[in-house]
Design a protein that fits this description.
The chain is mainly α. It folds into two domains: 62 residues, Helicase, Ruva Protein, domain 3 (Orthogonal Bundle), CATH 1.10.8; 31 residues, no CATH class. Helix content is 45%, strand content 3%. The protein has six helices and two strands; from the N terminus they run ββαααααα. Strands 1-2 form a two-stranded antiparallel sheet. Strand 1 and strand 2 form a beta hairpin. The longest helix is centred in the middle third of the chain and has 17 residues. The N and C termini lie far apart (72 Å).
């Protein structure tokens, strides 16, 4: 199992798909990296030579923000929005949708599965003891 950028790459998948297991590397970036490293897209990850693995490591770690570095940058961006108390920052603080989605319905994924149903409004009569 090759290890690139601290992530174990699955052996039995094509390398173009296996690279997407790294946080921050999608399919398009994976193809770009492989083209730059001069590796065929349909090659399996287990068939990579140590030289090819080292070329991939060098390209990915030197040119792109991935894994911890990318997560840290995203976290700082959200923290900055919260600190300046802008609209998006306040939405992050309150745990509401940030990108303009409606909130009257359809926000189950952001707020959690909060179901507030209202009954008929009448309380049953009190039973004498």
């Amino acid at each position: 199992m090759p290890r690139i950028a601290g992530v174990n790459i699955p052996d039995n998948k094509q390398i173009v798909i296996a690279l997407t297991y790294i946080y921050g590397v999608g399919l398009a970036l994976s193809k770009k990296i492989l083209q730059e490293a001069k590796i065929t897209l349909d090659q399996k990850a287990k068939n990579l030579t140590p030289d090819e693995i080292s070329r991939l490591k060098d390209i990915i770690e030197k040119k792109y923000k991935i894994e911890g570095q990318l997560k840290r940058e995203i976290m700082f961006n959200i923290k900055r929005l919260k600190d300046v108390s802008c609209w998006r920052g306040m939405r992050h603080i309150r745990g509401l949708p940030v990108r303009g989605q409606r909130t009257r319905t359809n926000t189950r994924t952001v707020r959690g599965n909060v179901r507030k149903t209202v009954g008929s409004g009448r309380k049953p009569p009190v039973q004498p003891t």
